Amino acid sequence: MSVELFTMVRVWAAITGVALALWGLLSFWFGVGHHPVVPMLVTGIGGFEGFLTVQDFVLRRRAGGPRG
After folding, report:
1. Amino acid 67: pLDDT
2. Domain boundaries, the chain
3. Are residues 60 and 67 in contact, defined by beta-carbon separation less than 8 angstroms?
C-alpha cells in the first residue's frame, strides 16, 4: 500500500496539532505557564487541517467521486 507524501504531511500535522493542543490544555489545567506561541501554533495547524478537509470535499464533489 503506497501512501502519498501529502497524505503523510496531513497525518503528521494532525498528530502535532493534537499534541500541542493537549500540551496547552494541560498546562492551563495545572496552572503551569506555557510559551505564548503554543495557541498560535494550534490555531495555525487547525486552520491548515480545516482548509484541506474542506478542499477535499469540494474536489470530490466536483469530480463526482465517493462521498463520505
Report:
1. 59
2. 5-63
3. yes
